[in-house]
Design brief:
The protein is built from 9 helices and 7 strands. About 5% of the residues have low confidence. The protein has one domain: Vaccinia Virus protein VP39 (Rossmann fold, 3-Layer(aba) Sandwich). Strands 3-2-1-4-5-7-6 form a 7-stranded mixed sheet, sandwiched between helices. The chain is an alpha/beta fold and 257 residues long.
């Protein structure tokens, strides 16, 4: 997918995003819990979305200057006008080097080139600054991927980067004290339509772009949808239909005082 298409998708999703962002909130809490006892004076939330993490960061460090950054203008509007904001791509931040003591980004890097985004994070971090990133790894939405397998030859789930991608990018960017943990989270849904509706609300319905054929250009027929639903229904348990997310939680530090 082009970045313009991703931006448009998240821009449209912004007003309804919070109604379906249970995973995003849960991952923010996990990432925050893994941060060491630090006292940052300046924090960048890169790919802030509607701003859930901004509130967490402001409550933990009330004296810090927290800056919101997102490349979707609609997301920045939802994040609030009473905060410093910048509309920007995390791969090319219009921010001076060594500007922040904490670089935070939760569930944005799966839409980026991780090496470029981490290099930018390292650049804007001050010496001694901390990096905290969460992203998604292969195996995410495996149930959905398998339900669609062989139906039409097109992609229906994003091709997520390998688990060691963030650690490799951090090391290549000169960061140290690198720690990456992978956590498996499973959300339950009443039915397949509810799951797909939630992904659309999150702006993540435009998810297939991994192989040469890319996303399907049109709608599936009734027979194909029936087959997909039957495959997914076979996974139902007492709590509903599972949707698995393989979450990477990455911490690192920029050398210096």
């Amino acid at each position: 997918m082009s970045k313009q298409a991703i931006r448009r998708s998240f821009d449209r999703a912004a007003p309804r995003y919070d109604s379906a962002a249970a995973l995003q909130r849960q991952v923010c809490e996990l990432l925050l819990a893994r941060l060491p006892e630090i006292r940052p004076a300046s924090i960048l939330d890169a790919g802030c979305g509607t701003g859930y993490a901004l509130g967490l960061l402001e409550r933990r460090w009330p004296e810090a200057c927290v800056v919101a950054a997102d490349f979707a203008p609609g997301m920045l509007r939802e994040a609030g006008r009473d905060r410093p904001r910048v509309c920007a791509d995390v791969e090319a931040l219009p921010i001076a080097s060594a500007s922040f003591d904490l670089y935070w980004s939760s569930l944005a890097f799966q839409w980026c080139d991780p090496a470029r985004a981490v290099a930018e994070a390292a650049r804007v971090l001050a010496p001694g600054g901390q990096l905290a990133i969460s992203s998604l790894a292969p195996g995410t939405l495996a149930e959905l991927d398998e339900a669609f397998a062989g139906i039409d030859g097109h992609d229906h789930v994003l091709a997520f980067a390998a688990p060691d991608t963030l650690a490799t990018a951090c090391a290549a960017s000169g960061l140290g004290d690198i720690d990456v943990e992978q956590r498996r989270l499973c959300l339950r849904h009443a039915n397949l339509a509810t799951l797909l509706r939630g992904l659309k609300t999150l702006g993540a319905n435009q998810i297939g772009a991994g192989n040469h054929q890319g996303r399907r250009p049109g709608l599936l027929g009734r027979r194909a949808w029936s087959a997909i639903e039957a495959r997914y229904e076979a996974r139902r348990d007492a709590a509903g239909l599972p949707a698995t997310y393989e979450v990477m939680l990455c911490r690192a530090r920029k050398p210096g005082s």
